[in-house]
Amino acid sequence: MRLIKLSIITALFSLIFSTVGFAQTQTSKRRTTTKRTNDISNYDISLGLKAALTKGVRFAVDDLGRKNGFLENPEVKIPLPKSLKNLEKGLRFAGQGERVDSFVESMNRAAENAVPVAVDVFVGSIKQMTFTDAKNILFSGEDDAATQFFRRTSEDTLRSKFRPIVEDFTSEVGVTQQYKQMVDKAGFMAMFIGDDAKDLDGYVTDKALDGLFYMVAQEEKKIRKDPIGQTSKILRKVFGILK
Fold first, then answer.
1. Whole-model pTM?
2. 167-221 pLDDT tens trace
3. What is the Cα–Cα distance from 184 to 182, expressed in whole angstroms?
4. b/e string for 1-31 if b means 16 or more Cβ within 10 A?
5. Buried b (16+ CB within 10 A) or exposed e, 196-234
6. Quick one: which of 3, 146, 200, 216 is 20 to 30 A from 18 by CA?
7. CB neighbours (10 Å) of residue 34?
């Protein structure tokens, strides 16, 4: 009986000490965050986050909005919809490889044309950022927290802006017609086309958005990893406190 009581007491003390240790750790984290916040003003934090997003968007737009911006970047290149992979193999086997390549190129060209409008949409997005938003983003511990905020506040607007541009471009260069011709050439294999390939303009629009946010996130990660190496004083000041 004494052994059982001793075991229970030992377990209780272990639980108490582990709880106290956890509480002390959490308190220490709060103190660290509070100290960092006290070292810099809310205004500077907000200004720094907006500067980071601006830099990220400009980087993404400049890189993706140029000729071959999507096509020559394997991370964001828009491929045929997944449900067309078997169709693609059949067309290439039938000697229609050039037609497939032309179609893929046209989709990526459409994305290139849509991306530049992101800059104007971004201006509206950063106006929504509050001081609280900025603090949460800065101290989130996530390398792409600012990009996530940007995506939450601007994706729907960007999609509504991107799609008409994609539609106009695909209409001008005959992508939709090329697509139909490609499907016609496929014969019985066309029955395997899935939902992701039925709305071509929607598919290209979504892929263009994915590419844009991917590139913005890559730039944000660079800023967080090397704030001292940034040319902007506010970026060095704000993100430097995380080091």
1. 0.77
2. 999 888 877 777 777 766 766 666 667 777 778 889 999 999 999 999 999 999 9
3. 5
4. eeeeeeeeeeeeeeeeeeeeeeeeeeeeeee
5. ebeebbebbbbbbbebbbbbbbbbbebbbeebeebebeb
6. 3
7. 10
